[in-house]
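**Backbone description:**
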Amino acid sequence: MLTLGLTIGYMLIAFSVAPSGSDDPDGRGSVSAAVAAAVKIVRDSGLPNQTDSMFTTVEGTWEECMDVVRRACEAVGAFGPRVSLVLKADIRPGFEGELTAKVERLEKALDRQKGS
């Protein structure tokens, strides 16, 4: 077993989950009802989260985040026999509140560039 010497504390997980197909009657392949079921799981978790047009990001411990992702996948699974999951994690020991702090640092850097 490979050990990286990393103690996982708080982390950010950005994920996208959707059924592989849909029964959308208008033929446009909408998966909004399934995605809404997944996002409800995230929002009901009480963890800091943010949803945009492509991903939902959640912040918490490994166990908290992975539990939310698992439950979101199960919710989407009710809409079809296959589930597609894309996941990206930022594991940075010793940092909490990064869901907003990373964006704040970016905005400050952009402001500094405007001034130069």
Q: What stands out?
A: The domain at 10-115 is CATH 3.30.70.930 (Alpha-Beta Plaits). The chain has three helices and four strands.
